[in-house]
Amino acid sequence: MTKSELIERICARQEQLQPKDMELAVKTMLEQMSISLSQGQRIEIRGFGSFSLHYRAPRIGRNPKTGESVGLTGKYVPHFKPGKELREGVNAFAVVNGSAPVATHEADPDDEED
Question: Which long-range CB contacts under 8 A does 44-48 form with residues at least 24 apart?
Fold first, then answer.
């Protein structure tokens, strides 16, 4: 789902809301979340999940085309940990529909539960 689709779905369910107002609200919320994370603050939305920063230490990587070693600097990356209600809701949906959604990327070892 894209940001535009999210705005459309909210407006379809809440007919009293104007699309331009909802667009401003969503953009403002995402902007404030980005600012908070960039300042090292943790964001917790009860029932949904939490956003925080994880540090990835410097390491030696490889250029996939040439195989050449490349030094990668340490960096902070955003991390999302789903809340209990979100996890249970997603699992219940998969059980009711008889299949789990198709994963769009490989599991990242840095994203394991803390």
Answer: 45/83, 46/83, 47/83, 47/84, 47/85, 47/86, 48/82, 48/83, 48/85, 48/86
Which overall architecture, per CATH, does domain 44-102 show?
Irregular (4.10)
Domain regions of the chain by residue span: 1-41, 44-102
With beta carbons less than 8 A apart as the criterion, state whether 59 and 49 touch: no
Residue 68 CA: distances (Å) to CA of 55, 56, 60, 93, 95: 24, 21, 10, 44, 45
Mean pLDDT estimate for the chain:
88
List all residues 6 or more positions away from 80 whose beta carbon is below 8 Å from its beta carbon.
49, 50, 51
96 or 50, which is more confident:
50
What pTM was computed for the model?
0.71
Tens digit of each residue's pLDDT (9 = 90 or more) over 19-38: 999 999 999 999 999 999 99
